[in-house]
Design brief:
Blueprint: H1 12-19, H2 29-44, H3 48-59, H4 65-94
Helix pairs in contact: 2-3, 3-4
Length: 98
């Protein structure tokens, strides 16, 4: 005759897995438009459409503040690099090295 395995108490890690709430996301049209503008809007109208997408993203309640910060950094970094490159090119073009 075999006995059933003895149940052991759950560790805190196992308990937290069981009790952790699942975050259900529900996207509205505004969130979808924001993601489209952020991701591909830069090809159509480079600076304006990604900024509009960020504005829509920041107005949304679906995303956490950290999500919004990451999206802002990912959109702003290429813009700053391009602006810095243009400023660098204009600066060196106007200097006379001769």
């Amino acid at each position: 005759m075999t006995s059933a395995p003895a149940s052991r108490p759950l560790t805190p890690r196992e308990q937290s897995r069981e009790l952790a709430p699942v975050r259900q996301l529900s996207f509205t049209a505004s969130e979808v438009v924001a993601l489209v503008l952020i991701s591909v809007g830069g090809f159509a109208l480079p600076i304006v459409l990604p900024l509009v997408g960020l504005l829509l993203l920041w107005r949304s309640r679906t995303w956490r503040r950290s999500d919004k910060g990451v999206a802002t950094a990912l959109v702003a970094l290429p813009m700053l690099l391009v602006a810095g490159g243009l400023a660098f090119a204009v600066l060196f073009r106007t200097w006379d090295f001769g």
